[in-house]
Design a protein that fits this description.
mainly alpha
């Protein structure tokens, strides 16, 4: 028994040493996660700017074209970085993540609650991405309702990064979280309380009330 225990202890020590001395994938995981958060944040911000441009009746065609082109491009880039982040977790020997850990919010080997938030965020983002791909095949109202999932996904991703990210305690990362969250919050409030947006919402509600 002592021999088996010693061998087991030795293998664990060697694995830990190997992971420690070769942390390449751990750096890849962190870089992919941070990059994905930045591109996701910019995607959400551009989407809100595009929505504000619509309700404010902006007539600058070049600005509208730029927003329309950047938004889906950055969404695809975010998807690629998220997939890269997940794959690097699977192959990283430092923490034994399996595919089931990344797809199901149960039995996580590392900071369970924070990782579970990340899994839920992944499904939220998947809904947004899939709805965008089938946008021209479904009703606009349905697409818009599904697209609102992006805000919940953004909140979940932010919480996941704060509580699971190894860099979340760094000053530059705190500034990133606070800055992006502040900008998104201000744009959401601007979108809700923009005069033209309120008039549009009122005009939509009035016929419904008359119909009753």
């Amino acid at each position: 028994m002592n021999i088996f225990a010693s061998l087991s202890s030795l293998s664990i020590t060697l694995a830990a040493t190997s992971a420690t001395t070769n942390p390449f994938l751990w750096y890849v995981t962190r870089a992919a996660a941070t990059s994905a958060y930045i591109t996701l944040s910019v995607t959400v911000i551009i989407g809100l700017f595009r929505s504000l441009a619509r309700v404010s009746r902006l007539r600058n065609s070049r600005a509208l074209w730029l927003l329309d082109e950047l938004h889906p491009y950055l969404a695809v880039l975010t998807l690629a970085l998220v997939v890269f982040h997940l794959l690097s977790l699977v192959f990283d020997p430092l923490i034994p993540f399996s595919l089931l850990n990344l797809l199901l919010p149960f039995d996580q080997p590392y900071r369970p609650l924070a990782v579970d938030l990340g899994v839920l965020a992944l499904y939220g983002l998947a809904v947004v991405w899939l709805s965008s791909w089938v946008k021209h095949r479904i009703a606009y109202a349905s697409w818009r309702a599904l697209h609102y999932t992006s805000f919940a996904a953004f909140v979940l991703v932010t919480l996941h990064g704060i509580f699971a990210g190894s860099d979340s305690g760094e000053p530059w990362m705190r500034v990133l979280y606070l800055g992006v969250s502040g900008v998104v919050t201000l744009l959401v409030l601007a979108r809700i309380f923009w005069p033209e947006a309120r008039q549009t919402n009122s005009s939509r509600v009035a016929p419904a009330r008359r119909g009753r």
